[in-house]
Specification:
The structure is a homohexamer.
Chain A lengths: L3 E2 L3 E12 L3 E8 L4 E7 H6 L7 E6 L4 E5 L1
Antiparallel strand pairs in A: 2-3, 2-5, 3-4
Chain lengths: ~70, ~70, ~70, ~70, ~70, ~70
Amino acid sequence: MEMKLSARNMLKGRVKNIVKGPVSSEVTVELMGGDTIVSVITKTSAEELKLAEGKEVLVVIKASSVMIATD
Amino acid sequence: MEMKLSARNMLKGRVKNIVKGPVSSEVTVELMGGDTIVSVITKTSAEELKLAEGKEVLVVIKASSVMIATD
Amino acid sequence: MEMKLSARNMLKGRVKNIVKGPVSSEVTVELMGGDTIVSVITKTSAEELKLAEGKEVLVVIKASSVMIATD
Amino acid sequence: MEMKLSARNMLKGRVKNIVKGPVSSEVTVELMGGDTIVSVITKTSAEELKLAEGKEVLVVIKASSVMIATD
Amino acid sequence: MEMKLSARNMLKGRVKNIVKGPVSSEVTVELMGGDTIVSVITKTSAEELKLAEGKEVLVVIKASSVMIATD
Amino acid sequence: MEMKLSARNMLKGRVKNIVKGPVSSEVTVELMGGDTIVSVITKTSAEELKLAEGKEVLVVIKASSVMIATD
């Protein structure tokens, strides 16, 4: 059985780098299309998900958190 | 002179679709790498940025708004 | 296979009410413990998840979106 | 005189655990209904609110930060 | 008795304009210092707070939602 | 050429204080009108923007992240 999430943005990628602090972790993910996404999650989440360089992950973003810019 | 933003995620794309409500607008952007991102911004922002299908834009996301999932 | 999410907060509940606008939907969920949570997601998400009164759902909240108050 | 807040979600609970980093603090709150909520706030906020294990608090969440998932 | 909130940013202002949709409301607030802040909250919140032009309010923003830009 | 951003709130100010952790940085900005805003961004962003006390910056906030309170 599969969980479905209301978050509109779920992008496949691979963990490229992890920096851990005492509370927060910064996780850099390289998307399949070549773009790079940086995420800050709790250190506990990074550990529970067993994140490590090279691991396949989904990047998840709620639509109301996404801004648009024009040059 | 160029504005620099603390938001870690700025991805190039092209507007694919816009749905406007009285307050909010939903903007779908196709990224260069092929992924699709959905954004909800105010209708006023969509108008001030003159967003329209096909327009080149940047998708901007603060790192603390990005989650990670594993299958 | 089960999706695991970095969001630290996932609470079981049941949809109590849905209000749909042209872009956003407001979904009220009654948690198992009796508390009530209000969520605003896109109308498209509400439809894709086939949300309806009485449906069992999970409420998902990123830890960095949670504030604390004291009386 | 009482402050009223636009945030739709205010749930009563009790602090269960606090982890402090140099900038951020992770605060775990047990809700009256038995659910547990994790919050990341600044270390300064945790200190100004004098948060400590056992203290009664309110968990406050803006509706637009709440997602919904279905199994 | 006074509620204290972990949100680090609480700025005094006065409601300048309200636009209501079926789910969301856009509230424009003029701060004491002259700056203008736009907020999107639920229509229900705007009604429960009895927001109206000229009403004194506090603008509340969690620190993790604030970005910094340089020119 | 100038970047335009959908974020409705862009306020001029000057950096007053920076606290750096291993992942996150807390940046306090004094607005032109006298109000003070606290931001949490990644340490990497603070370094890339070369933030330092006294530097002129813009505080950027998405409208959907702004709450309203009344006394």
